[in-house]
Amino acid sequence: xxxxxxxxxxxxxxxxxxxxxxxxxxxxxxxxxxxxxxxxxxxxxxxxxxxxxxxxxxxxxxxxxxxxxxxxxxxxxxxxxxxxxxxxxxxxxxxxxxxxxxxxxxxxxxxxxxxxxxxxxxxxxxxxxxxxxxxxxxxxxxxxxxxxxxxxxxxxxxxxxxxxxxxxxxxxxxxxxxxxxxxxxxxxxxxxxxxxxxxxxxxxxxxxxxxxxxxxxxxxxxxxxxxxxxxxxxxxxxxxxxxxxxxxxxxxxxxxxxxxxxxxxxxxxxxxxxxxxxxxxxxxxxxxxxxxxxxxxxxxxxxxxxxxxxxxxxxxxxxxxxxxxxxxxxxxxxxxxxxxxxxxxxxxxxxxxxxxxxxxxxxxxxxxxxxxxxxxxxxxxxxxxxxxxxxxxxxxxxxxxxxxxxxxxxxxx
Length: 413
Hints:
Elements: H1 7-22, H2 26-34, H3 41-48, H4 52-64, E1 68-70, E2 88-90, E3 96-103, E4 106-113, E5 117-125, H5 132-150, E6 154-161, E7 164-165, E8 172-173, H6 186-196, E9 203-207, H7 208-219, E10 227-233, E11 238-244, E12 247-248, H8 279-282, H9 285-291, H10 302-313, H11 318-342, E13 346-351, H12 352-359, H13 361-371, H14 373-377, E14 382-384, H15 390-405, H16 407-412
Parallel strand pairs: 3-6, 6-9, 10-13, 13-14
Antiparallel strand pairs: 1-2, 3-4, 4-5, 7-8, 10-11, 11-12
Helix pairs in contact: 1-4, 3-4, 5-6, 7-15, 9-10, 9-11, 10-12, 11-12, 11-13, 12-13
C-alpha cells in the first residue's frame, strides 16, 4: 500500500467496510428505532449485537436515507456512569406512507410516519355504495391532497377494512357491515385508485382489528406482551385479533379470530351471519342504545353517542348503569371463552369496550375470572387501547414493512 495514501480515503474506506458489514442490519435497526426499543446508539449497538463502529455506520446510513435523525449532542442516561450516547430519533420530515380506513359511514385517510406518528389526516362521512371504487377513490384523493400540502414523499399505502380479507391478495370475504360484494378484489381496486392519483409504492389491505392489535403491540398498550388478545367495537360490530411472539396470528388465509360471532346470548338478537346472540350484535354501540331504548341520534357516529352516554350518565343514571352492566356481562362471557382457548398474557379493549372497562373495571374482571379456567387461577390483565387512530397506524405498519425488510431497495431502488 502506498505510504503516501490520503488518510481521508483510508477513513472513508474503513467507514464503508463497516457499513458493508452492517448493511444487513439496516432494516432491523430501523424497526428497533421505529418501535422505541433503541432510543440511543448504545442501545442499538447492544440490541443488534454489533460493534459500536458498525452501529454508528448503520445509524449514519439511515440518517442519510432521511429516515432518522442522530442527535449531535450525546446524553448520558439518568444515574449512568457510562459514556454518553447519541439519541436516535425518527426523522420529523422523513418519508411517510398513506393509510386509509373505511367504515360503515365513510372513511378516514392519514399520512403515517415512522414511530407510528400521524402526520396529517382527513375524513368524511359518506354513504357506502356497492362499488368499492366509489369510496376508495375519494379516500385516496384525500390522501393525495395531504401529500401535496405537506410535500412529503410517500413510500407505500395500507388500507384497513371492517371485514376479513384473504392474504396476500386482499379479496373481501363476507363484508357484512358494508354493501360491498363478497369476493370484491379490494386490494386491486385500492391499488388502481392509488395509481390514478399518481401515488406509487407497495399496496396492502388488512382487517381493521388485526391492524389495531399490530399498532397497539408495537407502539402502545400491547407493547411487551408475548400473547396479546385485542377485542374492540367501533361504529358497529365486534372484532378481535391475536399477536403471538410479536407477529399477527391471521390463520392459514387471513381469517383467524372472528370473535364477533361467539354466541353470548342464545336468545339474543339476530346477527348478520345468520345466528343469534353473537358478540357482534350484543356488545356494540347499537346494542347499547337498544338496551337503553334509544334511537340513534341524527348526527355523529353511534360509537361517539354511546361513549357520551356512558361518560355523562353512568354515575347518576340508573338506566345507563344497567345497560352498561348488561353489556359487560355479555362481553365478559365472550372474553372468558377466548381466555380458555387462547390463554393470553394480556387483553386490550378498544372502542365501546374500552368505555365499558373504564366505567366498571371490577365487574368486567370478575365476570372474566368467574367464567374462565385461567382467570380463576391467575387474573389476565385487561387494559384499554391507548393509541389514537390505531387502525390507521396499523395500516401504516403494513406499508412500512417493505422498508424494514430492505430500506435501500425501497428508497434508492
